[in-house]
Design goal:
Layout (H helix, E strand, L loop, with lengths): L18 H11 L7 H7 L4 E5 L2 E4 L4 E4 L2 H4 L8 H14 L11 H13 L4 E7 L2 H18 L7 E5 L8 H6 L16 E4 L13 H19 L4 E6 L15 H11 L3 E5 L13 H6 L5 E4 L11 E6 H7 L19 H16 L2 H16 L8 E7 L2 E6 L15 H11 L2 E2 L1 E3 L2 E4 L7 H24 L4
Parallel strand pairs: 3-13, 5-6, 5-7, 7-8, 8-9
Antiparallel strand pairs: 1-2, 2-3, 4-10, 9-10, 11-12, 12-15, 14-15
Helix pairs in contact: 4-12, 5-12, 8-9, 13-15, 14-15
C-alpha cells in the first residue's frame, strides 16, 4: 500500500493571498485552454493554490479530493517533497544545458535507460519532448523521415480515429478526432484520415462484442485498400481513448489492428500519454494489457506525475537503425527541442518512477481499481447515468436523457457541468466533458477514499436530477 505523501509545507496562509486581485489578474491576462469564454468573462476561474496527497485547496482555503489527478497526470499524488528536492538539487547543480550536437546530461541518460528497461523489450531508444502534444507531433515527423530514408516518400498518411485525443499542436490537433476541438481551427486533412472510434456503449444495435471487433477491423482493411498501403505511414491509437470519453475497445481489437498494420507495412503508434505510468496498473499498458508490441510508444503526464513538463517517444530498435544513419557526410538528425532531455524534468521523472516502484503504486491500482469500477457502477440507478465505463483509475460516466435509446440531453442542459459543480460543492473535483464526467484520480486512492467519492457522487447526481427536472429537461 502506498504511503501518504509528505507535503511540501509553505510558510504562508491563505489569508495572505489577495484572492480578488489574483482572480482579476487571471481573468484579465491568462488565456486558459479548453475554457468556455461565454462564462469565463463573468465568472473567471477557481484558483487552486495548495495541494497535499489526494487533496487540493483553493485560494479561499476550501479543500477538495482531486478526482482528476491534476489532468490525468499527478499519479503519485501532490506535495511529494522527494520530487521537489530532486528538482532543486539538479537545478542548483545544473539547471540546463543543450543536448544538441553530441552533448547530454546525467538525468536524461539515466531516464532513457530506465524507460528502455520498463518498456517492451524492443523499445530501447528515447526522443524527449515537453509534453504529450509535442511527443505525438515529433513522432509523426520521425515516422515520415523514416520512410523517406527507406525510399518510400509516398507513405505519409496517418490513420487516427474519431474522438481520439492526441493533443493541440497543429499536427497533433489534426490527429485528434474530437470534432468540437477543431471548430474554426485548421487541420492537416491531407495527412490524416479518421476511422470510427471503438465505442462499445454505442456500437451498432444487435452487434455482439466480437462482431463489433470484426466490423472495426474490416473498416481498417477497407480504408487501407481505398487509400493504398503505399500511401499510409502509421496508425495511432490510445489503448483506451481518454478525453474522447474513456472509450473501451472490444476484446482483441488492438492486437488485430496491429496485425493488419504489420501486414501492410504500416507502423503502429501507441499513445500512452494517459495510460502510461500506472493508470491501468502497469508502467505501460500496450503489451501488458492489450497484447500489442507497438513500433512507437508516446508518453508524458504520469512520466513526471506532472511535477515538470516532459514527454518521451520510445522508438523500436528497427526504426532507430534507420533514423540513426546520417543522410550523407555531415548529415544530422535535424529535429528536436531546446528542452529535449531537460535535466530538471528528467530528475523529476526519475524520482517519480522510483516512488512508483518503491511504494508498489501499480499494485495499488490493480487492487483498488476494480473496486473503484464496481462502486461507480452503483450510480447506474440515477436517472441520467447511462454508462459507467473504463478500467482501473481511468473511468467515465456518460449522462443521457433516456437510458433505453441512449439519447443525449440538449447541450444547453450542461449536464456534465452540473454534475461537476454539485460534486465540487461537496468537496470533490471531477472533470466535465460535455455530457460526460471523467474520473482519473491520483493512483494512491484507497478503498476508503473510493467510498467517500462515490457517496459524494451519489448526492451530486440526486441534486442534478432534481435540477434537470426543475428546468424541464427530464
Amino acid at each position: 500500500m502506498p504511503t501518504t505523501p509528505t507535503r511540501v509545507r509553505h510558510e504562508r496562509h491563505h489569508q495572505a493571498l489577495d484572492a480578488q486581485a489574483l482572480w482579476q489578474k487571471d481573468r484579465d491576462h491568462f488565456i486558459h485552454p479548453f475554457t468556455d469564454y461565454s462564462l469565463f468573462h463573468e465568472k473567471g476561474c477557481d484558483l487552486i493554490t495548495d495541494s497535499d496527497g489526494i487533496y487540493v485547496e483553493d485560494v479561499h482555503g476550501n479543500r477538495f479530493i482531486d478526482g482528476i489527478a491534476g489532468l490525468w497526470c499527478v499519479n503519485v499524488g501532490h506535495g511529494r517533497a522527494e520530487i521537489g528536492q530532486a528538482m532543486a538539487d539538479q537545478a542548483t547543480r545544473m539547471a540546463y544545458f543543450s543536448t544538441f550536437n553530441n552533448l547530454s546530461n546525467a538525468p536524461a541518460a539515466e531516464l532513457a535507460a530506465k524507460l528502455a528497461e520498463l518498456a517492451p523489450a524492443h523499445l530501447n531508444h528515447v526522443f524527449y519532448s515537453c509534453g504529450g502534444s509535442a511527443a505525438n507531433d515529433a513522432t509523426v515527423r520521425l515516422v515520415h523521415y523514416y520512410f523517406n530514408r527507406l525510399g518510400k516518400p509516398n507513405k505519409k498518411r496517418i490513420l487516427s480515429r474519431n474522438n481520439a485525443y492526441h493533443g493541440t499542436t497543429y499536427l497533433a490537433a489534426s490527429l485528434t478526432g474530437i470534432e468540437s476541438n477543431n471548430w474554426d481551427f485548421d487541420t492537416l486533412d491531407h495527412l490524416v484520415t479518421h476511422l470510427s472510434e471503438a465505442n462499445l456503449y454505442r456500437r451498432p444495435a444487435g452487434m455482439s462484442e466480437a462482431q463489433y471487433c470484426d466490423h472495426l477491423v474490416k473498416e481498417l482493411e477497407e480504408t487501407i485498400d481505398e487509400i493504398g498501403a503505399d500511401n499510409i505511414a502509421a496508425f495511432i491509437a490510445e489503448p483506451i481513448m481518454g478525453a474522447g470519453g474513456v472509450l473501451m475497445a472490444p476484446q482483441g481489437y488492438h492486437a488485430r489492428i496491429q496485425a493488419v498494420c504489420r501486414a501492410n507495412d504500416i507502423l503502429y503508434i501507441a499513445d500512452e500519454v494517459v495510460t502510461g505510468f500506472g493508470r491501468l496498473g502497469h508502467f505501460f499498458a500496450s503489451e501488458a494489457v492489450f497484447d500489442t508490441q507497438p513500433d512507437i510508444i508516446n508518453c508524458a503526464k504520469g512520466l513526471s506525475s506532472g511535477y515538470a513538463p516532459l514527454g518521451a517517444t520510445l522508438i523500436s530498435d528497427a526504426l532507430f537503425e534507420v533514423l540513426s544513419k546520417p543522410q550523407g557526410k555531415g548529415g544530422v538528425l535535424s529535429t528536436g527541442f531546446t528542452y529535449s532531455g531537460h535535466p530538471v524534468s528528467c530528475a523529476a521523472a526519475l524520482k517519480n518512477i522510483e516512488i512508483i516502484e518503491r511504494e508498489g503504486i501499480c499494485d495499488n491500482v490493480r487492487k483498488v481499481g476494480p473496486y473503484l469500477e464496481q462502486q461507480l457502477k452503483t450510480l447506474s440507478g440515477h436517472a441520467t447515468v447511462g454508462d459507467v465505463r473504463g478500467s482501473h483509475f481511468m473511468l467515465a460516466i456518460e449522462n443521457v436523457a433516456d437510458k433505453a435509446t441512449k439519447a443525449l440531453l440538449p447541450v444547453e442542459a450542461r449536464v456534465g457541468d452540473r454534475v461537476a459543480a454539485e460534486a465540487q460543492k461537496r468537496g470533490l473535483i471531477i472533470r466535465p466533458v460535455g455530457h460526460l464526467n471523467i474520473i482519473s484520480p491520483p493512483l494512491i486512492w484507497d478503498r476508503a477514499t473510493v467510498d467517500r467519492v462515490v457517496a459524494i457522487l451519489d448526492e451530486a447526481f440526486t441534486a442534478v436530477t432534481a435540477s434537470l427536472k426543475a428546468d424541464g429537461y427530464l
